[in-house]
Amino acid sequence: MDAVLRGVIVYAFLLLFFRFIGKRSLSQITTFDFVLLLIIGEATQQALLGDDFSIVNALLVIVTLMIIDIGLSLIKQRSSKVEKLIDGVPTILVENGQPIDEHMQKARIDREDILESARELQGLERMEQIKYAVLERDGKISIIPA
Amino acid sequence: MATVQRVGDLEISEDKQFQQREWKMERIGWVLMMLLVIAGLLGLLGGPGLFSDATVAAPNLQVNYSRFVHLLEDTSLRLSASHVEGEDTIRISISNTLLEDMRIEGIVPEPESVEAASDHLTFSFQLQAPNEEAVVTFYLNPTQPGTKQGWLGIDGGRSVELSLFVYP
């Protein structure tokens, strides 16, 4: 019982806190975002497993997390409202070469981040070559060239 | 399945209203997380800290302990007691309500003897000289989350009430 409860509580907390931290950190723009994820993983492990290192406990925790994940994906399929709540929505950052400052500021993305993605993904050189830049739900910036 | 809307040339499920609300919630979330950290620094979430360190006292007895503790994490009860009479042993009683679901990891110094009663345990300690003040530390490890309340007293003196909360 304990393992299932731990799984549910930790999943709920992580979901909430990752929504608070925003999409930007998830996309691992900087090296430290990556380190942060590693550290969160380490800290979570303790809370998930407690001091019970048996295989049964690990099995129960893993299955619990998977079932929550499957359950949520089923609910998300049926309700777009829940899907938005859990996954968020994509945000347009650049439209026809024009950066939308309000969106960029709120999402904590600067021009440099967009240009970096443009170079990496499309080999673009300047902002005006970007038709659309979208901050996707997973925090990655996708670029559609003009 | 809702049809995907179009923004410009993009087929994208952008939702500006939702996005604005999300950003607002995000910022509220930051404040909540900040409050959590502050609560942690102040000791409200367990461990040592301003609001966790507690002292209860009665004549001849003083107890220092942590009000907020963590499950399966050692905590200590530190007693300073002085005897009323001219005897060279000191007897400390602790109610069972305080000790149940607590693993006693150690008592420093070791008691001479322990006696069990229906609602409490009595620990006897030898004093080096009569009327000497004794400092005794109980190292405890809570095995169940929740609130614990109970009393603690020395023979011939008033007892003190204490309560602590065990975070899961």
What does this structure look like?
- The complex is a heterodimer of chains A (146) and B (168).
- Chain A has 146 residues and is of the alpha+beta class.
- Chain A has 2 domains: 2-87, no CATH class; 91-145, CRO Repressor.
- Chain A is built from 7 helices and 4 strands, in the order αααααββααββ.
- Chain A has a 4-stranded antiparallel sheet.
- In chain A, strand 1 and strand 2 form a beta hairpin.
- In chain A, helix 1 runs antiparallel to helix 3 and helix 4 crosses helix 5.
- Chain B is an alpha+beta fold and 168 residues long.
- The mean pLDDT of chain B is 90.
Question: What features would you highlight for this structure?
Answer:
heterodimer, A: 146 residues, alpha+beta, CRO Repressor, 2 domains, 7 helices, 64% helix, 12% strand, elongated, B: 168 residues, Immunoglobulin-like, six-stranded mixed sheet, five-stranded antiparallel sheet, 2 helices, 18% helix, 48% strand, rod-shaped
Short characterization:
The complex is a heterodimer of chains A (146) and B (168). With 146 residues, chain A is an alpha+beta fold.
Helicity level of chain A: 55-70%
Q: How large a portion of the residues of chain B is in β-strands, by DSSP E?
A: over 45%
Largest sheet report of chain A: 4 strands, antiparallel
Counted by DSSP, the helix tally of chain A is 7
Uncertain runs of chain A: none
Our count of domains of chain B comes out at 2
* Largest interface chains and counts: A-B, 23 and 20 residues
Give the number of domains of chain A: 2
Characterize the overall form of chain A.
elongated
Biggest beta sheet summary of chain B: 6 strands, mixed
Q: Compute the gyration radius of chain B: what is it?
A: 26 Å
Distance between the termini of chain B: 41 Å
Q: Roughly what is the average pLDDT of chain B, rounded to an integer?
A: 90
Regions of chain B with pLDDT < 50 over 5+ consecutive residues?
none
